[in-house]
Amino acid sequence: MRRIYESGALHRDDDEPFSPREREESFTPQAMRSIDSTGLSRLVVPNRVRHRAISIEVSTPQSTYPAGAAVPFQVAMRNAMPFPITIATESPILWTWEVDGVAEASHVPLHDPPYERGGFRFDRGERKRFRKRWQQNFRVADDEWESAEPGTYTIGAGLNVENAAEKGLYDETTVTIEPDAE
Question: The whole model's pTM is what?
Fold first, then answer.
């Protein structure tokens, strides 16, 4: 193909729409430059605006479950702004969930994250959805679980930031566990 263009065998005319145009040898395409949206978000957008931009919603398919049945829940996060937002997190673990204030329904620490901060990035208008299941058990030791008693429990989730509830980066829902019908 290159030989055809260099040979002059083609009729070139800038005014005729179906013929090749003259080449401009001096023009060299340049790579598109990208902007670091995380850095730009940190520099330009104040923390309070970043926190208001992100909404979190925890939901379950039903509000009542029989004893022993898994409780599925969904955590939906959304950036309402027309530009990317990055939220600084306490560790590389970006978000957490809990049942009645017990992180991941475990009295035993499950994670030992490093003491470095992280960042949770949301593109403009981006929605993130996470699905989890609570098996109606609380972990009390490395190899021991306790079943949840019938009653009402609160499932909450939020970004891994200090005072997430005060900043609007936390939500919760309640579920009722009914006793076995015997």
Answer: 0.73
